[in-house]
Design a protein that fits this description.
The complex is a heterodimer. By secondary structure, chain A is mainly alpha-helical. Chain A is built from eleven helices and seven strands. Classes of the chains: A mainly alpha, B alpha/beta. The interface between A and B is medium-sized, with 16 and 15 residues.
Chain lengths: 492, 573
């Protein structure tokens, strides 16, 4: 259960009963059996995907995992739970149901019927958007492949794997679009998605944040909270796309993404809860010695992950983003609920920037600042989780609080790049920054200390000492449920 | 012809273009319908006399005074050039002269240029250039020597027509001159190769060419002869005699054979809003997608046994019928369908039959009619090369891109070939093949003097040689792909979608930038007079045309005839 105020809990399955062709190798609701071209393309791609999964997917050997599998988009269950061997997970292709009356809701094509085919005019841009989105999906699986070895519980291990298989399915979703709508170039790009690998010096993932190693579970939860949330917002803009198959694909992916948000929100929350307990009982903030993660270190991890995720939104002012919008390729978050003309040719907004060591504001055309618009939505959303984490501190009777750093803190992209801004929003010179940065961002020593706490706990129902147990299990199962059967029983 | 409204004072190009509904231009005419030319045949010498009907402009709004011309006049000139070659095998010299006193030709009509849209001017220049090149081609390849008998002043485009002739004789009457007054008077360049031919063909020194092109009144006979601007200057009393002598000398030296001509009967063309069709050529006009789908059909039967059989068929002989149709189609689409920015070229028919005709054109190459056809097809392909449209060849089962027809595909900017067959349409079809022949290795050169295959593999002769080593073989999609003869060989799973996306994408790009890019890519390698005219001259001229110094409200082209000079922005760009 999640309390995300913007998305709400993962929505209950609705809609008509859809017919699924289980006889096919690839579960789908896109009539794969009737599309000779797509079938051949995907069947050719699937073995390569499985090879990739075996080589770069989760490293910890398991027999099976209690996973949710999307087997349909309709009411008969996209939330279907069972123990399945991960390599037999049914990665399939699901698009939200088609609305035959859907019209383009923004940009110069506003009011025209949504596109069922890629217009040649937008082929290159659409393919680029899909490739960049698709590239992030397998990247996080690669980044997280070793985490199973240090899982704080079987419950968390299962959540990790759930996130991993769903990222795999999201890769499938993007590959489907590439295969179905972009011909041989699309197929070549789909192959490249498996050839680029996170952190690979020769063929890295496209976006920087996806080449960073996930060193420990605190970072994993922060990643899931902040970086996957960027993904959620990107999907939210693609869900508005005039290209209907992309819109429907992303709409369904967003439902799954809600689970990742849940893992991040509750993961950090449980760490904060445990930290608060230890701080209270030991009467000190320095709790590394007693097996907890100090709040200051949590804050540093938060600072880091928030700031690198902010960079993923790109420059505040972007011609590409404006073109994507005007052309109908990519909308705004909750486009249809916005109360404006959805064309934005005359709208302006203010933008903060740094000049001569201080913050200034200027008016810019909204169309040129759509990345900023999306990032503002994201920041507001991020604040909700922080409030929730602080509730644990308050409940424990502590005065300490976690905060989101200033939007200009530790930025490499956009108007703040090249400037030093402290977490509470002061513009600093080089020397002042260097003097303080270790107090704001995790140092090697911090990471080392956190890593030293990361010892696996594979006994059902038990949890590592630096994280609290969740209140409930998955799918109404108890917390001690056997969510994962490891390949070698007794390892715990 | 459509009667249209033209504003009295066109403010600028955009307005003129917006307000002027351009007529659909017809290129069909015949000597008995000429309004501006008179064609007299006297044995081996023909005389073509230009007497422009002042009120015979193609578009209202200007009078064609002083033997000035517009597109309509030039369409007649083109028709005459063609008929002389096909209908008059006995004619071995052509005298081009004027029917007015003291004025041979004043060039393109300035008021016409001033009121025309940019696109109209550009297309007009292209067509007139092609006609001038055709005159030179007749001299070079048909044994029909053109002699300009300038019985009065030849100004601007008038002198440029003369430059296309093999000899230029200017009357020595103390006042007639040759001149290129465009730059000083109109602030533009001579648009039909004048600058290029003065230095490259007439071999006039650079500084003299500079003097000539900036002096509006030009030069009289003595200087003109001394500098090489004309070959001779002859007094009025012996002018006719001198011209006749030159004509007969040229005729005597001509290798031209043939007695019985081939009548260029009116084309059997059918038109609807969505289609233009001829026997063997059909163009479907897809206006919403902004493209024309052109299909050339192969022959229905084997060629006749010999040259006599070919001549008997005349315009019905398959290569002749295809060439005439293509020539007309290209001109019509270029002039009347400017929004159809992409031409998709296909062929359909029996490859063996195409090869039989292809071989016959070579075997009977000494026959005058066959020779004319080969050069006509060559010129038509050159028209395609300089056409400002994206050209895409689609090679599918049932196509017959072999030999001379393969030149069409090679003229295209890209070639898409289906590998295999359309499984869902006709799984039993024969997969498409193409066949190279000697026709692809020289007889149909581009403006740069190279075969299209050589141009394709410019600087990599081994690739053309390797391809030509496969001449005569039926090359399937994979072989074509490997030999670099096609852009992409795709199976039916990808083909349709890929093609759709390619065409849609193409149609969405800037038409101006595409024209520039295509022209840059098509003409690799050496410069010739033709490539200079269609590249260097045209690009500069088109730039000058749209600059305010020419076509702005105070531009020289606009102001001509108002008594005011051009009001220039003197900053150099």
């Amino acid at each position: 259960m999640t309390t995300e105020s913007r998305t709400g809990p993962a929505p209950a399955p609705t809609g008509p009963l859809s017919s699924i062709d289980y006889s096919e190798q690839i579960p789908n609701n896109v009539n794969l059996a009737g599309d000779r071209r797509l079938q051949r393309a995907l069947e050719g791609w699937q073995p390569k995907f499985l090879d990739w999964w075996k080589a770069l997917g989760p490293a910890l050997p398991t027999k099976d995992v209690y996973l949710r599998t999307a087997i349909a988009v309709g009411r008969d269950g996209w939330a279907h739970f069972a123990h399945v061997p991960m390599e037999q997970y049914r990665w399939g292709i699901f698009l939200a149901e088609r609305n035959p009356d859907r019209a383009v809701s923004f940009g110069k094509h506003k009011g025209e019927p949504a596109w069922q085919q890629v217009p040649g005019e937008h082929r290159a841009a659409l393919m680029r958007l899909i490739v960049v989105q698709g590239d992030t999906e397998p990247a996080s699986v690669e980044q997280q492949r070793l985490l199973g070895a240090t899982s704080p519980s079987i419950y968390d291990l299962r959540n990790l794997f759930q996130v991993n298989v769903e990222e795999g399915r999201h890769l499938w979703a993007m590959v489907y679009l590439l295969h179905a709508y972009f011909g041989r170039e699309g197929r070549a790009e789909a192959e490249q998605l498996l050839k680029r690998n996170s952190g690979d010096l020769d063929a890295p993932r496209i976006l920087g944040a996806f080449n960073e190693e996930t060193t420990d579970w605190l970072q994993f939860f922060m990643f899931t909270y902040f970086t996957d949330r960027d993904g959620k917002y990107q999907l939210g803009t693609l869900k508005e796309s005039a290209f209907d198959p992309l819109a429907r694909t992303c709409e369904f992916m967003l439902k799954e993404e809600a689970h990742h948000m849940f893992v991040g929100t509750t993961g950090v929350q449980r760490i904060v809860k445990r930290t608060a307990e230890l701080m209270k009982s030991r009467g000190t903030a320095d709790i590394f010695g007693c097996g907890g993660i100090p709040l200051q270190v949590i804050q540093k991890y938060l600072n880091f992950q928030f700031s690198v995720s902010m960079d993923l939104f790109g420059s505040e002012q972007s011609t590409n983003a404006g073109n994507y919008y005007s052309s109908g390729l990519k909308g705004r978050w909750q486009e249809t609920r916005r109360k404006d003309d959805h064309v934005l040719l005359d709208e302006v907004r203010t933008m903060t920037y740094v000049e001569n060591g201080e913050f200034r504001e200027k008016e810019v055309p909204v169309l040129s600042a759509l990345n900023l618009d999306l990032r503002d939505e994201y920041v507001a959303d991020c604040a909700n989780g922080v409030r929730r984490w602080n509730q644990e501190l308050e409940d424990a009777g502590l005065d300490d609080r976690l905060v989101l750093p200033h939007e200009g803190f530790n930025r490499r992209v956009g108007v703040y790049a090249g400037h030093h801004v402290s977490p509470n929003g002061e513009v600093l010179d080089d020397a002042a920054w260097q003097a303080c940065v270790d107090g704001w961002l995790p140092s090697a020593a911090d990471r080392q200390a956190v890593a030293s706490l990361m010892v696996p706990e594979y006994e059902y129902g038990k949890f590592a000492g630096w994280i609290a147990a969740p209140q409930t299990g998955i799918n109404d199962q108890p917390v001690e449920f056997d969510y994962v059967h490891l390949a070698e029983e007794g390892i715990a | 012809m459509t009667v249209i409204e033209t504003p009295d004072h066109a403010e600028d190009d955009v307005d003129a273009a917006a307000l002027t509904v351009l007529p659909d231009v017809e290129f069909d005419t015949a000597p008995d319908r000429y309004r501006h030319f008179k064609l007299d045949i006297d044995g081996e010498v023909a005389t073509l006399t230009l007497t422009v009907d002042e009120d015979g402009g193609l578009v209202p709004g200007y009078q064609l005074k002083m033997n000035s011309y517009d597109l309509g006049v030039d369409i007649e000139l083109y028709d005459a050039v063609q008929r002389l070659r096909f209908e008059h095998p006995r004619v071995r010299a052509v005298v081009l002269t004027g029917g007015l006193e003291r004025m041979f030709c004043a060039g393109a009509n300035i008021r016409m240029l001033a009121q025309s849209s940019h696109a109209w001017k550009v297309n007009f220049c292209k067509f007139t250039n092609e006609t001038r090149n055709g005159i030179e081609d007749a001299t070079a390849n048909s044994g029909q020597t053109w002699i300009a008998a300038l019985n009065g002043t030849a100004a601007g485009g008038g002198y440029e027509i003369a430059l296309a002739c093999e000899q230029i004789v200017l009357i020595d009457d103390g006042s007639s001159t040759v001149s290129l007054p465009e730059l000083p008077l109109l602030g533009v360049l001579p648009g039909t190769g004048g600058l290029t031919r003065v230095v490259d063909k007439r071999l006039v020194r650079k500084d003299r060419a500079d003097l000539f092109a900036t002096r509006p009144e030009g030069y009289r006979g003595a200087t003109a002869v001394q500098w090489g601007l004309v070959d001779a200057t002859v007094p009025r009393n012996s002018f006719a005699q001198d011209i006749a002598r030159r004509a007969h000398e040229a005729a005597a030296a001509s290798p031209r054979t043939g007695t019985q001509g081939v009548e260029l009967a009116p084309l059997d063309r059918r038109e609807t809003d969505a289609e233009i069709s001829y026997p063997y050529v059909i163009a479907r006009l897809n206006r919403s997608a902004r493209r024309a789908e052109i299909t050339v059909q192969g022959p229905a039967a084997r060629p006749p046994a010999d040259a006599a059989g070919v001549l008997a068929l005349g315009v019905g002989y398959w290569p002749m019928a295809v060439t005439r149709a293509l020539d007309d189609l290209i001109l019509r689409l270029r002039t009347n369908e400017t929004e159809l920015g992409t031409w998709v070229l296909r062929t359909e028919g029996d490859t063996d039959l195409v090869l039989a005709y292809d071989a016959q054109l070579r075997e009977l190459g000494d026959d005058w009619f066959v020779n004319e056809m080969v050069h006509f097809y060559k010129r038509t392909l050159k028209r395609l090369d300089v056409t400002s449209r994206s050209l895409i060849a689609v090679i599918e089962p049932g196509s017959c891109f072999a030999g001379l027809l393969l030149e069409l595909a090679l003229a295209c900017d890209r070639q898409y070939m289906l590998d295999g067959v359309y499984e869902d349409v006709d799984p039993a079809a024969e997969p498409a093949t193409i066949v190279l022949t000697e026709s692809n290795d020289g007889p149909y050169p581009m403006g740069n003097g190279l075969a299209r295959l050589q141009s394709r593999f410019w600087g990599r002769d081994e690739l053309s040689s390797e391809a030509m080593a496969k001449a005569g073989q039926r090359l399937g999609a994979q072989a074509c792909d490997a030999a670099g003869l096609v852009t992409a060989a795709l199976d039916d799973i990808d083909f349709e979608d890929e093609l759709r996306i390619v065409l849609e994408e193409r149609a969405s790009l800037s038409p101006d930038a595409l024209t520039g890019m295509e022209a840059n890519h098509r003409f690799v390698g050496p410069e010739t007079m033709e490539t200079k005219i269609f590249g260097r001259l045209t690009a500069w001229q088109n730039w000058i045309f749209i600059r305010p110094n020419a076509s702005g409200p105070g531009g020289a082209l606009r102001r001509f005839g108002t008594g005011q000079r051009g009001d220039y922005d003197y900053r150099r760009v």
